[in-house]
Amino acid sequence: MVKAGKKNPFKSRQFTAEIILWAVRWYLQFPISYRDLERMFSDRGVQVDHTTLFRWIQAYAPELEKRVRPHLRMTNGSWRVDETYIRVKGEWVYLYRAVDASGQTIDFLLSPRRDAAATRRFFRKALKQAHTVKPRTITVDKNAAYPIAAKAMKRDGELWRFAKLRQVKFLNNIVEQDHRRIKHLVRPGLGFKSFSTASQTIAGYEAMAMIRKGQVAIAPANDMKAQRDFIAALFSAAA
C-alpha cells in the first residue's frame, strides 16, 4: 500500500492533479523540451504555457523522488560507480551515479567538483538510503579520488573495512550504459540554467528511471498503467 502525505501538494494550482502528473511523468521519462510538452497538451485541448510546465517540474520532480524512496526494492552489495558530465550555465558539472550488478539504481549526486571530498559525499548519501546495503565490492574507474575516499571512510568507520574497491573500467559498462538514459533526457533542454534547477530536475529523472526499471514492487517495469497508478497514489491523486 502506498502512503501519501496528508498535505495536498496541488492546493492553489490552476490545473488538476491529473494534468500536472501527466506533465511530470511525460517530461521525466521522455526526451522532450518544455515547448514540446506545451504542444502535446495543446493537442489534447489543454492550454498550458511552457514556463508553467517548468515550474511544475521544479516543484514536483524532487517531491516525486522523495516519495518514491520508501517503496524501492533492496539493491545488492555489488556497486558499480561512475560519474558523467552535465552542462549547467555553460559549465560542466559532475553527476555521480551508482547501480548494482543487476542495473538497479543505488543513488546519485550532482557535484560542482570531481574529487575525493565529492566522492565521499556521494558514498555517504548512498549508504544512508533505506534500499541500499553495505557494499561488498565497489567497482570504479581509474579516478584517483575513489581509493582516497574509500580509505578515509574505512578509517573513520563509515565504510565496511572488508569492502573491496576494484578499479576495473570494463566491469563498469553497466553504469556507463545507464548514464545514456540521463543524457538522452537532458539533451533536448540544451543544458540547465542553474545548479538548483539541474539538481531538482535530475532527481525527477532518476526517480522515474527507478520506477521504470521495476524497482517498485507494485509497479512492474513494463506496466505503464501500474506505474501511472503508483505515482498518482503517491500524491493522493486520481490516476
Description:
This protein folds into two domains: 17-72 and 193-234, no CATH class; 78-180, 2-Layer Sandwich (Nucleotidyltransferase, domain 5), CATH 3.30.420.10. The longest helix has 19 residues, at 50-68. The model has no long low-confidence stretch (mean pLDDT 93). It is built from eight helices and five strands; from the N terminus they run αααβββαβαβααα. The chain is α/β, with parallel strands linked by helices. Helix 1 crosses helix 7.
List keywords for this structure.
about 45% helix, 2 domains, alpha/beta, globular, about 240 residues, Nucleotidyltransferase, domain 5, five-stranded mixed beta sheet
The number of helical elements comes to: 8
Indicate the low-confidence ranges by residue numbers: none
From the 3D structure, determine the CATH topology of the largest domain.
Nucleotidyltransferase, domain 5
- From the coordinates shown, what is the CATH architecture of the largest domain? 2-Layer Sandwich
Query: How many structural domains are formed by the residues?
Result: 2
Q: Please tell me how large the radius of gyration is.
A: 18 Å
Shape: globular
Run of helices and strands: HHHEEEHEHEHHH
The count of DSSP E runs of length 2 or more, i.e. the number of strands, is 5
For the largest beta-sheet, the strand count, sense and barrel status come to:
5 strands, mixed
CATH class of the largest domain: Alpha Beta
Spatial order of the strands forming the largest sheet: 3-2-1-4-5
Q: Please name the fourth-level CATH homologous superfamily of the largest domain.
A: Ribonuclease H-like superfamily/Ribonuclease H
Residue fraction in strands:
15-25%
Separation, N- and C-terminal Cα atoms = 15 Å
Helical fraction equals 40-55%
Structural class: alpha/beta
